[in-house]
Every structure is written in C-alpha cells, then in structure tokens.
Amino acid sequence: MSVEHDHSHHEHQHHGDHGGQAGHGGHEHHQPGKVSWGMAASATLHCLTGCAIGEVLGMVIGTALGWGNVATIVLAVALAFVFGYALTMRGVLRAGVGFKQALKVALAADTVSILVMEIVDNGVMIAVPGAMEAGLASWLFWGALAFALFVAFLLTTPVNKWLIGRGSGHAVVHAYHH
Question: What is the DSSP string of the chain?
Fold first, then answer.
C-alpha cells in the first residue's frame, strides 16, 4: 500500500488486505447507511454488465447447441461469474494490484451480487412460459432475458447498497479507485 495518498484518501486505505472479512471495527469510516442509491446502482450495473455478457453467451451457446435448460443455465451462470469477476478485476488490476489480490477483491466484491442476480435472472427465465424453449430468433427469448436482467438489477441494487454500507461488497473495490 502506498503512503503518499494517506492524507487525502485515508478513508480508503487499509482495505486491500482483508478480502472478505465482514467488518468488526475498522469500517466505521464508511458511514453505514450513507451509501447513495446511485453508488449502489452503479456497482450493480457494473456487475450486471459482466453477468449479462456471460448470461447471454451461455444462453446463446446452450440454445444453439440444443442443450436442455439445466445445462444451459449452468453454462450461463458459470460464464456470468467469469465475466462479472473479469470486469471487476480489470478495474482493480488497472490500479496496479497483483492478479491474486485482484481476484480476491473481485471475489469479495461480487460473489453475493452475482449470486443474487443469477438466481433472480434464471428464475425469471424459467418462470416466463416458453422463454427457454423460444430459441434465439424469438423476441420472447430476448424479451424475457432483458426483463430477467432488469428484475435482477432492481433486486440486486438494494443488496449492493446494504453490502457497501457495511464496508463489504463493492466497497472493497472502491478502495482501489484513487
């Protein structure tokens, strides 16, 4: 950790070293409850972008290969995690953090967020009649997917707001945005 930022950014220092520990002390400076909805929405949108890329790719590949729902969803979820983490890591790596530490930060920041998003997203896809069977040429497939991602965004934003307020979730990433 560099010390030269200490005066102007001391509220962001000392965060990178303890990846996923839920905060007991040391996190008060995040002023729980003072997280703006905009901040939570931007963290959610960031995560959703990665999720959406993976999700769409997974759905497209699975559907194109004629896989069943379960296999398609497993692939979509796996890719959603990969792309979700990758986007977070890209920002953290740009801050000059090593790969292993960046991975830890991404895991700490996005795991809950991606999990909630994927459960909601795939739940909606399964719930919309015929969406999974609709095929890639169908507006029902894309409409349901867009709707699923929108619902996931709405439900994940409050989760992220709460996590950031507690000094976890995307707050971990903000330590690296100087």
Answer: --STTHHHHGGGTT-TT-TTPPPSSS-GGG-TT---HHHHHHHHHHHHHHHHHHHHHHHHHHHHTT--HHHHHHHHHHHHHHHHHHHHHHHHHHTT--HHHHHHHHHHHHHHHHHHHHHHHHHHHHHSTTTTTS-TT-HHHHHHHHHHHHHHHHHHHHHHHHHHHTT-TTHHHHTT--
Furthest C-alpha separation in the chain: 58
pLDDT at residue 77 tops 70: yes
Model pLDDT, residue 11:
40
- In angstroms and rounded to an integer, the radius of gyration of the C-alpha atoms of the chain is 18
Tokens of 151: 């619902």
Joined together, the tokens standing for residue 106 give: 């991404």
Output the pLDDT for position 5. Answer: 40
pTM: 0.64
Residues in the chain: 178
**Which of 30-34, 65-69, 101-105, 173-177 is predicted with the least confidence, judged by mean pLDDT?**
30-34
Q: Could you tell me which residues come within 8 angstroms of residue 86 by beta carbon, excluding any fewer than 6 positions away?
A: 50, 106
What is the b/e burial string over 118-155, where b = at least 16 CB atoms within 10 angstroms of the residue's CB? bebbbebbeebeebbebeeeeeebeebbeebbebbbeb
